[in-house]
Amino acid sequence: QENKVSLELAGRIQEVALVQQVQSSRVHRIHEPDVELLRHLPGSLKEQLRVEVYGNLLHRHPLLRSVDILHPMAFARICNKAMTQESLMPNQDLFTFGKEAKKMYFVTAG
Predict the structure, then answer these.
(1) What backbone phi and psi angles, to 5 degrees, belong to 27?
(2) What is the gyration radius of the CA atoms in the chain, in angstroms?
(3) What global pTM score does this model have?
(4) Which of 9, 12, 45, 69 is the 20 to 30 A CA-CA neighbour of 62?
């Protein structure tokens, strides 16, 4: 009560924290920075890997599919420079109503 947080809000926060703790112990998605071997690959191989990994996902969007057809080098740059992976826990916000969007997301699971 020192910070004047209501019991209702404190309870909701605690519930989300518990769910996230349980979920994080069960599911662990592996991302590129987590794989030591990938850090030591030549840059050209990493670039090809990213095009294959992200390319299939980006082809779901008609504009990006067209970019690949018309400008394959630009598409490869998108795959290598603009794409990252992000994992969220249950009840964690991906975006918030009313806030300006700064990224485009492709949800692949969940």
Answers:
(1) -115, 130
(2) 19
(3) 0.63
(4) 45
Burial class (CB in 10 A: 0-12, 13-18, 19+), 75: buried
CA distance linking residue 60 with residue 57, whole number of Å? 6
Element (H, E) at 26: helix 7-26
- Alpha carbon distance 46, 52 (integer Å): 10
Query: What is the C-alpha separation between 5 and 11, in angstroms, rounded?
Result: 10
Instruction: Give mean pLDDT in consecutive 10-residue pieces for the chain, a chain of 110 residues.
Output: 76 76 62 76 89 92 96 96 81 85 80
Q: State the amino acid at position 106 in one-letter form.
A: F
Ramachandran assignment for 98, one of left (phi > 0), alpha (psi -120 to 50 degrees), beta (any other): left
